[in-house]
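Working notes for the structural subgroup meeting. M.R. asked for a predicted model of this chain before we commit to crystallization trials. I am recording the input and output together here so anyone reviewing the notebook later can reproduce the run.

Input as submitted:
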Amino acid sequence: MYDTDKRKLLSALCHGAIFLSTTLVSVGIPIFITFVTDDPIVRENARESINFHINVWVYGFIVGVLVSMTWGVLVPVAGIGFLLHWGLTVLALFYVLSDTEKPFRYPFIFRLV
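Returned structure, recorded in token form:
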């Protein structure tokens, strides 16, 4: 049996790390947690968080290129992407803090890890 408070804390740290920044620093937290925990739910949440980081970077790059190519006409698309990014992260945090028996799965992302 795994400690549910520890599971909540580590899972929330994995998903909430993206609020720190969109650089490699924030993805380091779920990577580190993947290596130090033996809890399968926390490990799955960490992997999902890593995949979400990768998706945010890829989609951010694509939207950034499109905004610059259209001289800023597509800035609202960047705003929608930003709201979606933060909204999904908040949803993940609520989920892992309320249900400790299964990991959160982000919709609409590709999974490399």
